[in-house]
């Protein structure tokens, strides 16, 4: 008999649909968790519907997405563990810092306010948005080539193209502009309460071959938590890129997260 555990909320990042978490949700449900994969504001229920209506996700910012998930989490009947990837990982950090959720895992999380390194590969990966200032208020899609550079560089081109066709959706440009300006804004929505001693435990995961969120960003993020006594752990998967939650090696990451949750008794 599977022991009933916490609820778990999976939070996707830019350019991936919430259904990209389904394999994780099924695995975690089999291990006793009640799994949820809610989308961002404006996301349609399917990949194709979201592609057909990019205007629905345009001009959505970090604060709106934060409030959307905070409400979802607070409305659950039981405490929730939060697991997010990329901008979803940053949202996990922000939500946990405000005590929404009992623990969190941030996988290749986007930079928060205070993180200074911005490697060239990260700039290149986000160029499809930043090349036009008007994209701040638009939804932007990636080409297969752009996806391969930003997400699928650690897998074969064939696998990268399959992932692109299966999971990618248009993404709002605004969160990237907000994160880029975070260190110049007093009240940036990318600010996270990293000094909260009462928050639940947090695990940061980084892929050693990630071009979108290189190791330097995740290591700098960890340093932001140095004044908190709450648990903050870091795990590296040296040979993995930004597609690590959806590619053929997803289960290794998912099982590692499960082991960490067990160790934290979550």
**So how many helices?**
11
Provide the gyration radius in Å: 17 Å
CATH-defined topology: Rossmann fold
Strand arrangement in the largest pleated sheet:
2-1-3-4-7-8
Low-confidence stretches: none
How would you characterize this protein structure?
This protein is an alpha/beta fold. The protein has a single domain (7-263), classed as Rossmann fold, CATH 3.40.50. It is 37% helix and 13% strand. The protein is built from 11 helices and 8 strands. The chain has helices at residues 22-30, 47-52, 62-74, 87-97, 120-125, 127-130, 144-150, 157-167, 174-180, 215-224, 250-263; strands at 7-11, 34-36, 80-85, 103-107, 139-140, 171-172, 202-207, 232-237. The strands form 2 sheets. Strands 2-1-3-4-7-8 form a 6-stranded parallel β-sheet, sandwiched between helices. Helix 4 (87-97) links the parallel strand 3 (80-85) and strand 4. The longest helix has 14 residues, at 250-263. The chain is globular.
Q: What keyword list fits this structure?
A:
37% helix; six-stranded parallel β-sheet; 11 helices; 266 residues; 8 strands; Rossmann fold
Question: Secondary structure elements and their pairing?
Answer:
Layout: E1 7-11, H1 22-30, E2 34-36, H2 47-52, H3 62-74, E3 80-85, H4 87-97, E4 103-107, H5 120-125, H6 127-130, E5 139-140, H7 144-150, H8 157-167, E6 171-172, H9 174-180, E7 202-207, H10 215-224, E8 232-237, H11 250-263
Parallel strand pairs: 1-2, 1-3, 3-4, 4-7, 7-8
Antiparallel strand pairs: 5-6
């Amino acid at each position: 008999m599977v022991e009933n555990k916490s609820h778990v909320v999976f939070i996707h990042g830019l350019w991936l649909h919430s259904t990209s978490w389904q394999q994780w949700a099924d695995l975690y449900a089999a291990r006793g968790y009640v799994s949820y994969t809610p989308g961002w504001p404006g996301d349609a229920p399917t990949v194709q519907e979201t592609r057909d209506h990019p205007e629905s996700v345009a001009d959505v910012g970090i604060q709106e997405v934060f409030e959307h998930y905070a409400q979802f989490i607070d409305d659950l009947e039981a405490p929730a563990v939060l697991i997010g990837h990329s901008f979803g990982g940053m949202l996990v950090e922000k939500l946990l810092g405000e005590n929404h959720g009992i623990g969190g895992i941030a996988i290749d999380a986007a930079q928060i306010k205070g993180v200074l390194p911005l490697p060239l590969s990260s700039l290149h990966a986000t160029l499809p948005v930043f090349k036009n200032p008007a994209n701040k208020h638009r939804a932007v899609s990636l080409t297969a080539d752009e996806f391969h550079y930003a997400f699928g560089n650690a897998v074969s081109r064939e696998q990268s193209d399959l992932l692109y066709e299966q999971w990618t959706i248009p993404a709002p440009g605004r969160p990237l502009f907000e994160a880029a300006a975070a260190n110049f804004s007093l009240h940036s929505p990318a600010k996270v309460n990293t000094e909260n001693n009462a928050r639940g435990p947090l695990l940061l995961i980084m892929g050693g071959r990630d071009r979108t969120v290189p190791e330097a960003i995740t290591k700098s993020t960890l340093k932001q938590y140095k004044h908190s006594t709450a648990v903050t752990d870091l795990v590296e998967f040296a040979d993995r890129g930004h597609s690590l939650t959806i590619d053929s090696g997803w289960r290794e990451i998912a099982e590692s997260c499960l082991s960490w949750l067990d160790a934290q008794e979550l």
